[in-house]
Design brief:
Strand content of chain C: 5-15%
CATH topology of chain A: MetI-like fold
Number of strands of chain C: 15
Largest sheet of chain A: none
Oligomer: heterotrimer
CATH superfamily of the largest domain in chain C: Periplasmic binding protein-like II
CATH architecture of the largest domain in chain C: 3-Layer(aba) Sandwich
Strand order of the largest sheet of chain C: 2-1-3-13-6
Number of helices of chain C: 19
Strand content of chain A: under 5%
Mean pLDDT of chain C: 88
Order of helices and strands of chain A: HHHHHHHHHHHH
Distance between the termini of chain C: 68 Å
Chains: A mainly alpha (292), B mainly alpha (308), C alpha/beta (434)
Mean pLDDT of chain A: 88
Number of strands of chain A: 0
Number of helices of chain A: 12
Shape of chain C: globular
Shape of chain A: flat
Low-confidence stretches of chain A: none
Chain lengths: 292, 308, 434
């Protein structure tokens, strides 16, 4: 005990803080979600999981969940793919690598409070003669047939909403992958080459498996950002149904509809959705650590 | 890394394969191709920045989405002057917030990471898992109880010290919220980084009679630079750019830059060029941090990366 | 070893609490929290909470502030305005402040159902004493006083009146399309929209989803008639009947002539000013945007570059909304707040504020010479027209109801299903009926 007690004491303040600010809040939230406190003045009594069930009867909830899925898939894969591609292109060293890296990372430094307006301009839905923003650019480049409604497209609008998010985060993913590539010991590659592996073979059999942990941590970071996405959507489109996601719906439920129980229910679903991403990751990481 | 011209490119097919002319030509071709693709992406990445920049030099009459691509017909620095005027009251608040905030976060993360990887107690892994869940709270959902909690902290400190309004409505409350909600990610980064330090080093120090803190100071801290860089960059960025906590937890006197930035837009007319100049102004400090710590950032990621 | 533990705990505790308190430079006071500075100093500040930060609105606020500070040398006006989404962010922030019992000294709210939400939650103090002292009952219109009262208690001081049912149009575009008469009924409006469409211009410009709700309120008023519209907000209202079905079908028809949704109301209004679009239905804050010189607006000439009329079918009715200031319970500086309310209620204050904001004063005795062009029209109509309250701007439907209507319209915009819209609206009326 003498051995580990100091360590425990050192993290105690963090434990207390997390207990209050994270678990206290989560507890408050789950408790609220299980009451019928549908306005700010009533006391609210326990109704079990009723709110969790009735939420699915609401058309808007279905819409926002669909949107979140489209957004998550496009954003996570888009950012992973683009980040990986950029890292692959830079891996072997390129003139001005520092500059490239800095510029790819730069979007991370700006908040959407600042860039929301620009993205709204760029993703303007007008086409043809009245086109502005990216549609005008496409037109000017002779790619006029690629113009579309961006985030106002009724079917794939959320895919467009992922574009600014990819822009912001793919630099970070690139840095992660680049670090991953550079972390692969040269001897390993050399050995494979001596064994007659082609470059692609080396990549496929040596590098890729070693990148798995990087990919996974990038996946977690992107995944939880995407399920909580709020700033970006409010900054670009506001609180419109056409770009509604659970986090925006929750804001409306709490602050516009003044329905605390409904807001808490949506918040609970967001936390649950994030856990689905995270728990398998944690289990996997800890088990692997213990093995080694 | 920028000296690729003098030395042959880092490990690649060229060095491994037959050093014949064909291979060299192919390598040059592939390098040219890679450079081209990277440049194309560079241009794409800079599109929003270009629009921000050109619009910020336009008089308000020219600042319109239909002229987003055009250079200003009349160049003016007026939007920048106004933007500076409007942001200025918030900048010092942001500094007071982001500098101590990122340093405290890094210090806490480092200690937590150290204990959870090298000085474990029973249940340390479970605790780590529980910590990580802090990352996943949707903050908008807990804003009301959070405000109430800080109001209570205000009352406690008033009873204890007589100073009122210490936490809610002022920078310290905002700082506290950011530091606490930053614990999970900072702990994660440091823990993953410290796992790469061989246990033997810690053991050796312990055999020499060093206690927990001395081991930390003499063995762990000296090699922590890159991880500090990653955490400071991450936290500084999120503290500096945060709007939600800022507007809810502080009052007009302690509003940071982002709230001032938000207030440039009116309900009646939106002075776009001022808004864009302000957006660029507000991101300069984060840019400086990226440039200053960028090299360490890569190194920190590299050291921690393969550990997931 | 033991000393080390203590050191460890001390170091981290310091990191968490003390450092965060000191690191931020000690308490700055401010915000909703009670200011830490000595009493005498703290009494001076009056925190005025609003969402007026842009050109026009903030200028109006500043004009009132100057009067306030001249009359109250011991008080300092403290501007706590937060911009965004027509007060969306400000109202969310306000809700948290009120729930935590840390209200500002006074805050802006829309007179009517929105304000009654605060009254029912017990957040506001009645200001009857002010109405008695300043004889305000004589200068504000009776319907306005009804909208800010509950059971004989009056809860706020209205500073301005805006009109919601205004149709803005571009005379040149109408002429080019062969529309000779300004459409006065919904049928004429649809015919005009068709002509403009044939001429290749945008018949009706539209912005984000809330501007569609704004359009809906004008169409409901025009299609149902003023009395039926006003009955919608009383007990036993009929949202499911055939008249409503017809009104919603009118809405669908009109919306089918709308161009690509612009980002917000300003770009939509600008399409009219620039001659790309013929019509836009928006509140009269658009006048300031059209008319004010560049930097605060588009600098267009009224009657030639743009013109206005009541939205189709609503001639003779003024659909209004009003900004008002309140006295929250537990205001840290109550005396200061009362002093502010006096300025906001005064003729001098309202005549300083409104010409800049581009609205008309709530008082009946304002100096009419200050209100020219469109505002003169509005002032005249306000005195003679029948009244109806706006939905989107907080007069007739409370926040929850309004949110439900916005949701229904947002979904309708995607699926264009009139029956579903009608049943959602009826449902919203049933569950939020006041």
């Amino acid at each position: 005990m003498r051995r580990w007690l100091p360590g425990l004491l050192l993290v105690t303040p963090s434990i207390i803080a997390i207990a209050v600010f994270v678990y206290g809040m989560l507890g408050w939230n789950f408790r609220l979600a299980m009451t019928d406190k549908h306005d700010e003045v009533s006391e609210g009594s326990f109704v079990g999981l009723e709110n969790f069930v009735t939420l699915w009867d609401q058309k808007r909830w279905g819409i926002s969940v669909d949107h979140a899925i489209v957004f998550t898939v496009v954003f996570v894969f888009g950012a992973l793919l683009l980040g990986w591609l950029l890292a692959l292109l830079m891996e072997k060293g390129i003139r001005g690598e520092g500059t490239f890296r800095a510029i790819y990372l730069f979007p991370m430094a700006i908040s959407f409070v600042a860039t929301g307006v620009v993205w709204r301009w760029l993703m303007n839905s007008a086409q043809g003669e009245r086109a502005v923003g990216l549609n005008r650019l496409l037109d000017g480049l002779g790619l006029g047939s690629f113009q579309w409604g961006w985030f106002r497209d009724p079917d794939w609008g959320m895919a467009a909403m992922a574009v600014p998010a990819i822009w912001q985060m793919s630099g970070y993913v690139m840095a992660l992958f680049l670090a991953g590539f550079r972390g692969v010991p040269e001897e390993l590659r050399e050995a494979a080459r001596v064994d007659g592996c082609t470059e692609w073979g080396v990549y496929r059999h040596i590098v890729l498996p070693l990148l798995r942990p990087v990919t996974l941590s990038a996946l977690i970071i992107l995944g939880h950002i995407s399920l909580k996405v709020f700033d970006l959507i409010v900054a670009v489109s506001g609180k419109q149904i056409i770009t509604d996601v659970p986090a925006v719906f929750m804001w409306v439920a709490v602050f516009d509809s003044h329905d605390p129980a409904k807001g808490a229910t949506i918040a609970s679903y967001i936390v649950l959705a994030v856990s689905v991403f995270v728990i398998p990751y944690l289990v996997w990481t800890l088990r692997r650590e213990r093995r080694s | 890394m920028t000296t690729a011209t003098k030395t042959p490119p880092a490990p690649g097919p060229v060095r491994a394969a037959d050093p014949g002319a064909r291979a060299r030509r192919r390598a040059r071709l592939s390098r040219g191709l890679r450079l081209t693709v990277l440049l194309v992406f560079l241009v794409v990445f800079l599109i929003p920045i270009y629009v921000l920049l050109v619009t910020s030099f336009k008089p308000l009459t020219e600042a319109d989405p239909s002229r987003a691509w055009a250079l200003p017909e009349v160049w003016t620095f007026e939007p920048w002057r106004v933007a500076w005027e409007k942001l200025a009251p918030g900048i010092w608040n942001s500094v007071l917030l982001a500098v101590p905030g990122s340093l405290i976060s890094a210090a806490l993360g480092s200690m937590n990471g150290y204990v959870l990887s090298k000085w474990r107690f029973p249940g340390a892994d479970v605790l780590f898992t529980l910590f990580l869940f802090g990352m996943f709270i949707p903050y908008q959902g807990v804003m009301i109880p959070l405000v109430q909690l800080l109001v209570e902290l205000n009352e406690i400190t008033r009873d204890l010290t007589g100073a009122s309004g210490v936490f809610y409505g002022a920078i310290p409350g905002l700082l506290l919220a950011h530091v606490v909600y930053g614990i999970p990610i900072c702990t994660l980064i440091f823990r993953n980084y410290y796992v790469t330090i061989p246990d033997e080093l810690i053991e050796a120090a312990r055999v020499d009679g060093a206690g927990m803190l001395r081991t930390y100071r003499s063995v762990v801290l000296p090699v922590s630079g890159p991880a500090f860089a990653v955490v400071v960059i991450w936290q500084f960025t999120s503290l500096w750019n945060d709007f939600l906590f800022a507007v809810f937890l502080t009052g007009p006197q302690s509003w940071p830059t982002t709230v001032m930035l938000n207030n440039i837009a009116g309900a009646q007319t939106v002075p776009y060029s001022q808004q864009m100049a302000a957006a660029l102004l507000a991101s300069i400090p984060t840019m400086i941090i990226y440039v200053l710590l960028g090299r360490f950032f890569m190194r920190g990621l590299m050291a921690g990366a393969l550990k997931g | 070893m033991r000393r080390q533990w203590m050191a460890a705990v001390a170091v981290t505790m310091a990191g968490l609490l003390t450092l965060s308190a000191c690191g931020g430079g000690g308490g700055d006071g401010g915000g909703g929290g009670a200011p830490q500075s000595p009493q005498a100093d703290a009494r001076k500040k009056v925190e005025v909470f609003s969402w007026w930060t842009g050109p026009g609105e903030a200028d109006g606020l500043k004009a009132m502030r100057e009067i306030f500070e001249k009359q109250n040398t011991g008080l300092e006006f403290f501007d706590a305005a937060v911009a965004g989404g027509s007060g969306d962010k400000a109202r969310a922030l306000l809700a948290t402040k009120l729930q935590a019992d840390t209200p500002p000294d006074t805050f802006q709210g829309h007179a009517g159902a929105e304000l009654q939400g605060y009254i029912k939650a017990g957040d506001l103090e009645p200001v009857n004493f002010l109405y008695d002292e300043l004889k305000l009952r004589d200068v504000f219109p009776q319907q306005l006083i009804d909208q800010i009262s509950v059971q004989g208690q009056i809860y706020s001081v209205p500073v301005n009146i805006h009109r919601s049912n205004v149709m803005w149009f571009n005379p040149a575009v109408l002429k080019e399309a062969g529309v000779t008469e300004v459409p006065a009924t919904i049928e004429e409006f649809v015919a005009a929209l068709e002509k403009v469409k044939k001429a290749g211009k945008i018949p009706l410009s539209i912005g984000s989803e809330w501007t569609m709700v704004h359009l809906l309120e004008s169409v409901l008023l025009g299609s149902l008639g003023t009395d039926a519209y006003n009955r919608l907000w009383t007990a036993g209202s009929d949202w499911s009947g055939p008249a409503m079905t017809k009104a919603l079908n009118d809405f669908k028809t009109i919306l089918s002539y709308a161009g690509d949704p612009a980002d917000d109301w300003q770009p939509a209004a600008k399409q009219v000013a620039d001659g790309q679009a013929a019509f836009n239905i928006m509140g009269d804050w658009a006048y300031g945007y059209f008319h004010n010189p560049p930097d605060g607006g588009l600098g267009k000439t009224s009657k030639t570059d743009f013109d206005w009329a009541p939205s189709p079918g609503t001639g003779g009715t003024f659909m209004w909304l009003s900004d008002s200031f309140t006295l929250p319970k537990g205001a840290p500086n109550r005396d200061g707040a009362v002093a502010w309310l006096k300025v906001a209620a005064s003729k001098e204050g309202q005549d300083a504020f409104n010409p800049k904001k581009g609205s008309i004063p709530a008082r009946k005795d304002a100096d009419s010479g200050l209100y020219t062009d469109y505002l003169a029209d509005a002032l005249k109509d306000w005195g003679s027209d029948k009244l109806a309250g706006s939905i989107q701007h907080g007069v007739v439907a409370n926040d929850a109801w309004r949110a439900a209507i916005n949701e229904a319209v947002g979904i309708f915009h995607a699926d264009k299903d009139v029956a579903a819209l009608q049943s959602s609206l009826a449902e919203a009326a049933k569950s939020s009926g006041q």
